[in-house]
Amino acid sequence: METHKPIKRSKAFVQFSKDHHFGLLHIWQIRQDINKNTAAATIGKYILDFFEKDLAKHFKEEEELIFSKLPAEDPLRKQAEAEHAQLYLLIDSIKNNRIDKQLLQHFANLLEAHIRFEERTLFNHLQEILKPAELEEILLHTK
């Protein structure tokens, strides 16, 4: 098993990291339900509820408060935005087909990879390049 040393997180990203932890718990639950052969429609409803109540707001805040701090051509910004776009498309697909367990599993896998990317790569990059005033601005909007 790959180990990662703890990352000293800027206060500007703490709430986002807490949301990510909550997201990973949802991913764990989705996978548990798939393994227990829970009805796909039930899992699909769970995913859609999570998206509508939590994830959509989280994505919007990241897009407005974090991604926008990077130049449009920045490769990490492009990756983050592309992954959000993929996840939005998957949510639309789940709305139209809640019974495809492979689709539900794909959502869980992609969301986990996206969270790991943000936590291990994007946030670290931003912590290195953003000025203290920019970090403070993010923090003010997440309280």
From TrEMBL:
**For the Hemerythrin-like domain, which residue ranges apply?**
45-125
InterPro entries, alphabetically? Hemerythrin-like
Q: Per its UniProt entry, which superkingdom is the organism in?
A: Bacteria
Task: Note the Gene3D superfamilies from the entry.
Answer: nmb1532 protein domain like (1.20.120.520)
Q: What is this protein called?
A: Hemerythrin-like domain-containing protein
Can you name the source organism? Niastella vici
What taxonomic lineage is listed for the species of origin? Bacteria, Pseudomonadati, Bacteroidota, Chitinophagia, Chitinophagales
